[in-house]
Amino acid sequence: MFATEFLDIPPLQAAGGTVVLPGSKSISNRVLLLAALSAGTTTVHDLLDSDDTRVMLGALQQLGCDIVRSEGCVAIEGLGGRLKNARAQLFLGNAGTAMRPLTAALALLGGDFELSGVARMHERPIGDLVDALRQLGCRIDYLGQEGYPPLRVGAPALQPGAPIRVRGDVSSQFLTALLMALPLTAAAQDVVIEVVGELISKPYIEITLNLLAHFGIAVRRDSWQRFTIPAGSRYQSPGAIHIEADASSASYFIALGAITAGTSGQKDVRIEGVGADSIQGDIRFIEAARLMGAQIVSGPNWLEVSRGAWPLHAIDLDCNHIPDAAMTLAIMALFADGPSLLRNIASWRVKETDRLTAMAAELRKLGAMVEEGADFLRVTPPASPAHWRAASIHTYDDHRVAMCFSLAAFNPAGLPVRIEDPKCVAKTFPDYFEALFALAHTFAARIPVICVDGPTASGKGTLAATLAHRLGYHYLDSGALYRITALAAGRAGLALDAAHEVAIAALAQRLPVRFVGDQVWLDGADVTDAIRTEEAGMNASKVSALPAVRTALITLQHSFRQLPGLVADGRDMGTVIFPDALLKIYLTASAGHRAERRYKQLISKGFPAILDNLRTDLEARDARDSSRSVAPLKPAGDALLLDNSDLTIEESVNQVLGWWRGKQPFGTS
Ligand SMILES: O=C(O)C1=C[C@@H](OP(=O)(O)O)[C@@H](O)[C@H](O)C1
Ligand SMILES: C=C(OP(=O)(O)O)C(=O)O
């Protein structure tokens, strides 16, 4: 997951390949609760692992449910209608699928519970559900604002009998909550729920009914107005259940296939885990994408999508049945041949954020013209490539804003897109951006590189690795490549001299190296410490003076330039390896400061060291590095000099990040 302050996505060109999607949030949280209410063990395969399911799992554990995780599945020991803990404070984040159904279930089971969430959850309505439950004799108090969480749930004085009336026009989750919880009171008599007002988001009720049926409860439905839970209903675990991949998450990759030309290797975007026969309503996003021109074929649990009409056709669509995936249509509308109208989406206002206002504001930043109505959005795409703008997308802690706006990086103007707070995708799809980058392609020249060059012990490694971490970029420690080459050559019995140049170069070309955080791996072995000795440093300097070795390592170094970007540290990154890098830093510090830092580093690792000797060695090495015939150590002409003698690491990092921001086209929006 990208836990950076922002994620800059370079302009993207094409996409192709296979994505295996994580499980459905809506199915996962329903199955978890139904499994907990049943007797016996339910083994859940391919459960979504995200913020929303974690809060549900955490709550169930607090209530006394045993949960055992093993490879690919989670076993839930059901409570059989009796809570082990009848007092608990449950934090439910921003998961509507946890807050609403748990409120209903706990209000009927009785106890002393406090249900709360993040600040936004306390702005998301729950009054219609509370009103419905109170008709039954449930005791629920508002701890903050009337009609909103946090809530206190007490012991009910149940008066079953009359039909329970619930409003259906704010969120379908209120009806879902009642449908899942009311079998608790249906032992002796039918329980009837009547929907007041037009029910929204109907396909989510179909998911609920489908899963209730899996757990032995056959609800009778009369149109969308009246639901009857038959007397004698009892939750029965299906034993094992498999969770389909999330159809709303699929929408981003369906859109990806629709708006991008395939890559030379792969024409289509293939989505695994969910197919056209999904039980999730958001699968009907396919119909909308087809209307816009996408070509989509499907089989059992898979979809293949490719670009059809281009530009996409504008659409005018009632999106009430696909409220979540419809946000993706708003982004596809940027690539359409005219204005698109997404109608009947008033519920957007009470989700993770006010999505109507948020989408309108962010789409406008990209250059679209947007009309925001009470319950609709009309999106007119930028009139020409020149009308697109590079934008820093504010994401409002809304996973879907972050995910759908990433697709704007395919804009025809070749502009990057900044996604603020990218970790908000953790609500339903923690590895969304990794999945996107695995399929997306762009020209290497468009992938940003920051070069940090400088003499030994200047702190390049720390600075570069920290920058990479802060920006979510890959990290290349090119100095380590020479050290690793030297180590590998030594282990192969090759002397590090010109006579063995060809053999060492051949070895270097196939170097199986990986940088994992601050670890260095060579051919499956951790060589982090082995390459950090003074001797390894001297040996690296020797092999780096062999021109054939440098040539062999160039391809290897270029291969580190991958989405979303790279920070490369070394001695010739800006001058030789990545001459087109957007930002080049030449990092220096006085020989005295550097010797002192190296001294402390060695002593802290338990290596013997003498300060004066270190200083003499450093000076000798500087002289050798800057006088060698190939790629001598010198600042690139366009490098910015940073002397960090008197700077902390944080100060150096902030300085470079400041320069980096200054080079981006996002302004301060
Ligand atoms: O029941 C569900 O799983 C959901 C119902 C929908 O909410 P509304 O019924 O509030 O539209 C949807 O937006 C949400 O992401 C999940
Ligand atoms: C509206 C959403 O979430 P929730 O389940 O919290 O309502 C969503 O995932 O888009």
TrEMBL record:
Localization per Swiss-Prot or TrEMBL: Cytoplasm
InterPro entries: Cytidylate_kin, Cytidylate_kinase_dom, Enolpyruvate_Tfrase_dom, Enolpyruvate_Tfrase_sf, EPSP_synthase, EPSP_synthase_CS, P-loop_NTPase, RNA3'P_cycl/enolpyr_Trfase_a/b
Record: residues binding 3-phosphoshikimate: 25-26, 30, 171-173, 201, 324, 351
Protein biosynthesis is among the record's keywords: no
GO MF annotation list: 3-phosphoshikimate 1-carboxyvinyltransferase activity; ATP binding; CMP kinase activity; dCMP kinase activity
Keyword Ligase: no
Residues in Cytidylate kinase domain copies: 450-657
EC numbers on record: 2.5.1.19, 2.7.4.25
Active site: 324
UniProt pathway annotation: Metabolic intermediate biosynthesis; chorismate biosynthesis; chorismate from D-erythrose 4-phosphate and phosphoenolpyruvate: step 6/7
Residue sites binding ATP per the record: 454-462
Binding-site positions, phosphoenolpyruvate: 25, 96, 124, 173, 355, 400, 427
GO biological process: amino acid biosynthetic process; aromatic amino acid family biosynthetic process; chorismate biosynthetic process; pyrimidine nucleotide metabolic process
Keyword terms: Amino-acid biosynthesis, Aromatic amino acid biosynthesis, ATP-binding, Cytoplasm, Kinase, Nucleotide-binding, Transferase
Family to which the UniProt record says this protein belongs: Belongs to the EPSP synthase family. Belongs to the cytidylate kinase family. Type 1 subfamily.
Subunit description: Monomer.
Function, as annotated: Catalyzes the transfer of the enolpyruvyl moiety of phosphoenolpyruvate (PEP) to the 5-hydroxyl of shikimate-3-phosphate (S3P) to produce enolpyruvyl shikimate-3-phosphate and inorganic phosphate.
Protein name: Multifunctional fusion protein
Organism: Rhodoferax sediminis
